[in-house]
Amino acid sequence: MNRIFARFTALAAAAVMSFSMASCAQGELSSKPDKIDIICTTFSEYDWTREVTKGSENVEITYLLDNGVDLHNYQPSAEDIMKISDCDMFIYVGGESDKWVTDALKESRNPNMEVVKLLDVLGNFAKEEEIKEGMEAEEEDDEAEDEGPEYDEHVWLSLKNAVICCDSICQSLCKLDSKGADTYRENLKNYKAELADLDGEYTEMAENAKVKTVIFGDRFPFRYLVDDYNIDYYAAFVGCSAETEASFDTIVTLANKMDELKLDTIFTIENSDDSIAKSIIENSQNKNRNIESLNSIQSVTADMVSGGTTYISLMKENLETLRKVLD
To answer: Is 167 helix (H, G, I), strand (E, B) or coil?
Structure first.
């Protein structure tokens, strides 16, 4: 994350200068001062907030990473910092990739801003990253070691976590807009019922599955999901890894694990080039294995949103893929 910190001072200075110019020109930065301005970093936060505020004309929601860049590669622009500084509610994950947020919030011009940090909301339900057999371990510098454990940021890939996070989002909305509280709470109730129904489908799938282990020739952001349903896993990299090349030892270990478990399919995440998965298959006994993709819901674009993509639709797609492979 050092490259973000290196840019941040210049970005913040540019943002402050823009604040001053905008304030002199119009006295108010918000284009819609009569609305509650909510900024979400990830798609899941954005979509949860859309569901909780459904039918309300009193909110304006911004999805910050709507160009499809994932959380680990995002670098805030001066314009992003400006938006955050002036918003009424800011929702973010709060892990290693979000270190820039601490300084961004120091630029806040809104003393009444509601800040929802998902890792704090989850508390003991947040999971530390783990290194499994065959997985590439990332090199850590001394500074990183001094900072304590690194948490898995992909908290949204748990329907149980989604319920907890939506509760917190609704609470903050009710603080900001007491008149709309009944609408938010009713929407929350209905959405939690949808999440519970889908959670039940996942539970049934896992309980009836003949295969109880998945192998990923890729990063593995699905720890929360598999832990929820007692599915074991092996993978090339942890979910937040920046590595793109797997060692021969990792490839051979995962290939041997596929042979040992007699698995017909190896997984990747969306937008993968499948090169590592193909290498693992080539080094296994069965060269005719399949490659399937699960969506980590961290590269959703504005076009996908316009086309009707939702958090639940993507989680349902993942369910169908798992059902097909594990059955």
So the answer is: helix
